[in-house]
Amino acid sequence: MKAVALAWLGGFLAIAAVALLTDALSVALVLGSFGATCVLVFGYPDVPFSQPRNVIGGHVLSSLTGLLVLTVFGAHWWAVALAAGTAIALMMLTRTVHPPAGSNPVIVFLTQPAWSFLLFPTFVGALVVVAVALVYNNATRPARYPKYW
């Protein structure tokens, strides 16, 4: 039960930080897939998918893939599938697999954002979640986070 409570609080704090900064800075930092990211970094911080390289790299690479495919091919049913599959392959090739980031190309196709989406919310939001995870996980657990960068 302690692990459950700690994961709950970690997820709460990370999403609160992202949402608070969104309000304070008037820039979008909330990304739907960050909720699933919190499941990993606070519930299972020792697994490879939860490490900072995977969280940040996976989110950025997947959003970039979605934006590129959307720009080149337009918003078609097959293009979103191409973007999602390509993002999975690229994360695997670069050793930055982060399962929640696999939804980013779909989010890109649903919202059709500007290229600034890559910076806000994707990159900066992922940095905030990782920063909260670094402080929180190291303050509440005997094991160190991250296992590697």
What's the short story on this structure?
This protein is an all-alpha fold and 149 residues long. 70% of the residues lie in helices and 0% in strands.
Task: Give a written overview of the molecule.
Helices cover 70% and strands 0% of the residues. With 149 residues, the chain is mainly alpha-helical. It has one domain (2-140). α1 (2-25) packs antiparallel against α2 and α1 (2-25) packs antiparallel against α6. The longest helix is centred in the first third of the chain and has 24 residues, at 2-25.
Query: Helix amount, in percent?
Result: over 70%
Domain unit count = 1
The chain-level mean pLDDT equals 97
**Mass-distribution shape:** globular
**How much beta, percentage-wise?**
under 5%
Radius of gyration: 15 Å
H/E topology pattern: HHHHHH
Instruction: Work out the helix count.
Output: 6
Rounded to the nearest angstrom, the distance between the terminal CA atoms is: 29 Å
Biggest sheet details? none
Estimated structural class: mainly alpha
Beta strands, count:
0
| Spans of at least 5 consecutive residues with low confidence | none
Features:
mainly alpha; 149 residues
Topology:
Elements: H1 2-25, H2 33-43, H3 52-73, H4 77-94, H5 104-111, H6 119-140
Helix pairs in contact: 1-2, 1-6, 2-6, 3-4, 3-5, 3-6, 4-5
